[in-house]
Every structure is written in structure tokens, then in C-alpha cells.
Specification:
heterodimer; A: 437 residues; 3 domains; three-stranded parallel β-sheet; globular; B: 134 residues; Glucose Oxidase, domain 1; 7% helix; lyase (chain B); PMDh-S-like_dom (chain B); lyase activity (chain B); lyase (chain A); lyase activity (chain A)
Amino acid sequence: MGTAVKLTDEEKRVLDGGDGAIPQVCMQYLVEMCEIAGAEKLVDLDGTGDLHTPGNQLSPFYGFSLEELEKLAASGAYFKIPTFANKSPFPEQAPIHGWENCNICSYQNRDNRQDDPAFHEKALHEDFFRLYRKMGMMTSHSCANYLTMTYLPSVGQHCSWFESSQIPYCNAVLGARTNFDGTFATCFLGKAPYYGMHITENRYGTVLVKTDRLIQTDMEWDVFGFAVGADVACEVPVLTGTGKPTTTQYQKLNSAIHTGGGVSMYHIPGSTPEAPTLEWALGGKKPKRETLIGETELKKAYDTLNFHTSDNVDMVYLGCPHLNIVDVMLLARKLEGKRCRIPLWIMTAPWLYDVAKNLGYAKVLADAGALLMSGACLAAMGAVPEGVRNLAVDTAKQAYYITGCYPDDENRLQVCYGSTDDCIDAALTGRWHGEWR
Amino acid sequence: MKKIRIKGRCEYPGCVEAEALVSPMPLQGFANVSPGRGYTTERNHPLFKVPYTGKVLVYPSPRGSGGFMAYGRGPLKPAAFVHTVASSLTVLCALAAHVPCMTDFEEDPMAFIETGDMVLVNADEGYIEITKKD
């Protein structure tokens, strides 16, 4: 700490409690965040916000009660920027749709089951959300809010988002600017510490990434993202030699690059908005270093993501990040008229669930024995159904986190990682046939 | 006994001396850390199930989810955090932990500190002091 944070007169008034208790605690939190980050001031947000909910506990040291929030909402206060809810409420992380058939315990707590109606009702925290909605929050409950928010920030706008896969989506794909800091405080005050990705100089590429394999399939983008992240850590990579990603591939790249590493920003010259050319992406400077993510590195990443000795699969999970509607359509097409031998859970964004239903995909999937859900994920819920010892998934993020929920030798979880088609095959046969090709 | 002093930037103030636990790899939070048990649960990680409670946790950089902040939560958290690279994730962790946190050193502390060394983290005065275990 030690950085003198320069506040405007209005910000000082809020810090001194001039606008009441909750604005004051929010400003205290932001000032402390500035001091830790070395930020000299706050930036006024003109984009959008996103936070994990209920989110009244900003940190163990800053929070406010439901009663205080009730008074704030009654006073007519509102979120200063368009604000969305990240995936389903903490700490229970109940699915918004499909919970009735979600036969798992809640975050390693065997006393609470996601398919218990009483638990589900409590887990939705409606006492908070009726107030948040009154204050303008759009309760989208997705880790991929950019799919459904219908109001994306434009290039250069300052935002405050959360969720590892969304941060690079905001910065790299949309060209808007966010650090990993979406909270009630930032969205309510419409301000965030001015450092990191808000500053143009920090957004230029620092590591030039080359590949000797044309990255073009969904799984290649996922594995490539994980391998790049592991190589560059928190740098800003410039990805060259790849194809142009689809929306699905951007979803996979963003979630994987911020799982293998801590990448908030990257460039793909010719594709992403701040990289019309390689020179532009690098800000006219030489990169700190070059690195090759080629066949050898990709195979190594694929092997890291696989963690199984058996090819007998007990369950398949798809939907990390939450699936876009095209992916739901493609799954319905591939599963129409077929029958799963083992549980297949498919997770989408809550606001797409009804679309999938209206378009007939939900019924096709149900007829195939698959469970369409929304709003959560297995790693967030921290569990798999009892008896599942080998899980098949098609995203690096889920493959790499879910085993962390089962660290003990007596109940280690195995993971088969591969393409979506490998996972569909596993759902239909109960066997894993995926391999790096 | 040989002591090595390195200047750095204070993220969160305080002064504490404790044994170092060095992670040669970046650390990851969310489902890959258990604040209730006080160790990382990331498979294949060199610190898999190695308790960090009361240690000076030394690591090169964070990676992954905002759930990285879980390293700073609960009674089993480390005594202090020392890391080479700062990011939004280390900011979240310091906000949660309220224990001495330092970064942006004049020389990379990863090159000097080994697990078992004693490390004084004087974030108030902006330096760490390493006492080698042997």
C-alpha cells in the first residue's frame, strides 16, 4: 500500500459517509483495492458490470446486511451501470433450470442436495434478488453473460466484470476494458480502480506466440488456449498462425487461456479489434519474447487435461462455459433419435434455456436421455453424482478444476478430456475413445 | 547467518516472519484450493496437499479463476504472500487475506527463496529478508 489515492470531491464525500452506510463501505473497499493494486485513482465506468451474487460480502472485511440493503433499495438507489448477475448464487450454486434432476450434494456438503425443493428455494436467495432487481440488476445468472446480455460494451468502454473466461472476452474479443473486479461496489458506484486493463499501455502484446499446427477445431482452440496460458502466465500474448475463431471457439479459448494461465488480454492479428495488424497489436514495440505452441506443446497440454486410467465413463458433462444456442442446436441434431447409456448433463445460460425449449431442442435432448440445465456447473457445485468415478468433458476449464473437488485417494475422480464428439460418443457407449490426432 | 534483503512494493501492510513455502508453479484457486483444509488441490501440482497455513507463501504468479482469493480466506490462510507478478487475482487475494502481501521486487524472490528458509516480510517498510535454512 502507501499509494496516495486521488479522489474527487464527490468520491471523498461518499468515503466520508455523505451518501450513507452502503455507499461508504463500497468506497472504502474501492480505495483499499486501489492501494493494493497501486492504482492512483478511480475510473468512471461507462460500460457494463457483472458480479457474483448475492455479493453483499465484498470481502471478509467489508459487507452489509440485508436490512441495510432493503433501506438502500427503498431510497430509490440503483446500480450506476447496466449490471448483470454472474452464475447462480453463492454459496450453493444451484442450477436455475434442471435442478429437480440434479442428484448431487451442494459443495461437498452431503446434508444439502440440489434436487431438494426446500434447499433450492433457499439457494436462490430471492430475499436479495428482489432488491437487486429493484435496483436494476438483470439477473442473468451466467458465466457467459456476453451470450445473452443483448447489450455489449463497445470498444474502449470501461467495465467491471468477473469470471475468468469473461475477462479476456471483454478485453480481447470486445475491445472493452475490465480488470477482474466485478463486485457490488464497482457496479453500484459505477467506479473501479484505474490500473491494469483500463490503461492503453498495458493492453499491447508482450509475448509473440507462434504455432506449427493450424488451430481450427473447437478442441484445438481449447487445448491451444490452455497451453498458451500455461506458457505466458499473466502476459499479453499475440496469437499468430491460427485460424479465425468462431463464437464457440472464442468461448473455449477464453476459458482455457485463463485456466492454464492468468491472461486478461490477448490479440489475434486480423481478428480481435485492437489488432488490425501484428505491429499494432505489439504497440510498435518488440515483444519480450517469442514462444512456440506447436504439436509437442499441444499434445502435452492434451495429456495434462486427461486424468484417467480407465476408459469406462460414468457420466458426461458439457457446457463450460455455458453453451451458446448454436451449440445446443448441434447437440440436439447429433442426439436426435439416439439414447444415452450414461448420464449426460448439458449446461446453458438461463436466458437461453427457454429459447432451447421453444425451438424444440430441450425435448430432443430429453428424449435422448440427456438433462438440459442452466446457470451452474459441476465444478461450481463442487460435486458429481454419487458413484461417478470417471467423468468425460469437452473443456479444459472443467477438466482441470473438477478433480480439485476430490483430492483424497479414496475417492479421486478421473477425467476424460476430448472433443464434443468424443463426449457424445462416450454418452452413447459408456466408453472413452478420444485421442489426440 | 547470511541474510538476503530484497526491496519490493507493499500490497497489504504488516510485518511478519515465518518459514517459506515456495511454489515453483503458478498457483490456482477456485476448486483447486481448499481453504477449509489449507492446501492446494490442483492435481499434479508440486504443492498438492502441502499445508500453507502460517507460512510465507512464495509463488511466481496466480492463474485461473477469481476464486484465487480463497488462498486468503479463513483461519488456515498463510502468514504472508510474496509473489513475482501481480494481477487482479493477487489484489483480490490481498483484499480477502489482510496479511502482509508484497510484489514488484527489485530482484525475483523466486531465485533466492527455498522452502524452509525463514522470510521476514516487512511490507510496512517495503522489503523482504531471507535467512537461508542452512
